[in-house]
Design goal:
The protein is mainly α. It is about 40% helix and about 5% strand. It binds a DNA duplex through helix 2, helix 3 and strand 2.
DNA sequence: CGAATGACCAAGC
DNA sequence: GGCTTGGCCATTC
């Protein structure tokens, strides 16, 4: 992919699409990578109105808990995560210390 | 084009 | 310690 000339939404698509299996990212992290550290809500908005083919199930909030408005509920998202060896607890919370990934590692 | 929304975050009570 | 309020900023109607 090319470098600049990308709108916020386009960058979010790229970032989310590049999250490796078995890893997750936070909305704030993605927003910061896209140029607006405070635009975490926008990432969520894109997730709702944007491309449904992207692995949004790998995106969680800063607390390490699965998002709320996921189609089918958090149980559906947890099931997808379980398919990728990501374990979530009874509160749909994941291990932020281990599973959070960032592209520069 | 203007106003409202939103899958969040941080601070306050 | 958990719940409520306000602010953020791009996208959508």
């Amino acid at each position: 992919m090319d470098y600049k000339e990308a709108n916020f939404t386009t960058k979010v698509y790229e970032v989310v699409a590049q999250i490796p299996t078995g890893r997750v990212m936070t909305y704030g992290q993605i927003a910061a990578l896209c140029g607006s550290a405070r635009a975490a809500r926008i990432v969520g908005g894109i997730a709702h109105y944007g491309d449904p083919n992207l692995p949004w199930h790998r995106v969680v909030n800063k607390n390490g808990v699965l998002a709320s408005g996921f189609p089918g509920g958090r149980a559906a998202q947890a099931a997808l995560l379980a398919s990728e060896n990501i374990s979530s607890d009874s509160n749909f919370k994941i291990d932020v210390h281990t599973l959070i990934w960032h592209p520069n590692e």
